Amino acid sequence: MVKITFIGAGSTIFAKNVLGDAMLTPSLSHADIALYDINQQRLRESELMLKTINKNANHSRAKIRTYQDRKEALTGADFVINAIQVGGYQPSTVIDFEIPKKYGLRQTIGDTMGIGGIFRTLRTLPVMLEFAREMEEVCPQAWLLNYTNPMAMLTMGILKATKIKTVGLCHSVQVCVSDLFKQLGISEQYQAEEFQWKIAGINHMAFLLELTKDGKDFYPKIRELAAAKPHPHQDSVRFELMKRFGYYITESSEHNAEYHPYFIKKLYPELIDDFDIPLDEYLRRCENQINDWSQMRESIVMNGELTHTRSNEYASYIMDSIVTGTPSVIAGNVLNKGLITNLPEDCCVEVPCLVDKNGIQPTYIGRLPTQLAALNRTNINVQELTVEAALTFDRSKIYQAAYLDPHLSSELSLEAITCLVDELIEAHGDYLPEYK
């Protein structure tokens, strides 16, 4: 019997998607599903919801259990899904936004790059290393499917510091083309499934390198339509980056606004309106989710008729391919072992991967266009130094990562960045290890 362990199972909606998908997949429908979370109430709610889906699914006979002991939950697992958020919205996310504001630094999401991404990594990677080392002891052959951000930094850290087979999984690649068509207003005229494309780069900054239909390059049409769409609109940042650098980026405009030094600037406040940049967006999303949960609890957790439709999340497809040998193709975050030749060795890259009984096998991309590799490197610099800081407890590496961040370095002096880092270390307290 396949055993699937979900760490952070209190993420109820996400657990519904990933584990609901598994229960609808014949090779996984009789799996032993182990749920673990430090929040006991949310863990119990996820258990109730998943047992309802299991009961209502025609062919699912999964065995669903919750665990108080993480190591016990991991014992014998074939697959481990990670969806933790260390420090949660309160206090950690609020700290990551509010203290930088004192220095005049604004963010949109703060979960991947910038000062928010750096400190989320410093909080999260030590916890992931703890359970990855438990995996080395009790389920050493298991695959770790990481969904937690900052995707590149956390996946890189686990792959560099442990022997656990790990892949980072994001939602942005599989919807990139359909989202682009929607933003251009052509989603009714053209269906994404009719096109062939290639996407590669780094997480949240991978690029739509090729887009063809019936063997014909469709990019000239895309660039023409994007250039004709007046600003501001929901995808203004991505369209501007495509205009200047030639290619469309996988992740949303609100994310990419803070990955680059061009959009959120004290000297040019008009850019916020010009590009429709939603400052503090992640705070609003968290608050809305918290406020809406009581109503959602009734419709999801307490709904005895609840069912599920298989989503486009990669996890169930990966597990099915490894169990049955039926091939699938995913976009995975893996170490760069010569896959993208003009990005640093052993950074974390996002590339197409073949999945079958041999596991997850990344594919060779070669060189990215020079300007795209250059954009990626500005983020990789920060990622590598942040991971080094988390693995060595070297405080100087935190400063250096922040000094090199594109947004931070365009807004603050070296001394201001140093003070900001010091204040955040103190504010996060016991959520961080001691840095020397």
- The secondary-structure class comes to alpha/beta
Shape: globular
Radius of gyration: 21 Å
User: Strand tally, please?
Assistant: 13
Tell me the distance between the termini.
46 Å
**Could you tell me the strand content as a percent range?**
15-25%
**How is the largest sheet built, in terms of strand order?**
3-2-1-4-5-6
Uncertain runs with pLDDT below 50, 5 residues or more? none
Helix percent band: 40-55%
Number of helices: 17
Largest sheet: 6 strands, parallel
Task: Briefly say what this structure is.
With 436 residues, the chain is α/β, with parallel strands linked by helices.
Descriptive overview:
The chain is α/β, with parallel strands linked by helices and 436 residues long. The chain has 17 helices and 13 strands. The strands form 3 sheets. Strands 3-2-1-4-5-6 form a 6-stranded parallel beta sheet, sandwiched between helices. Strands 7, 8, 9 and 10 form a 4-stranded antiparallel beta sheet that branches. The protein has a 3-stranded antiparallel beta sheet with strand order 11-12-13. The longest helix has 25 residues, at 114-138. The model has no long low-confidence stretch (mean pLDDT 96). Residues 199-407 form the Glycosyl hydrolase family 4 C-terminal domain. Belongs to the glycosyl hydrolase 4 family. Pfam families: Glyco_hydro_4, Glyco_hydro_4C.
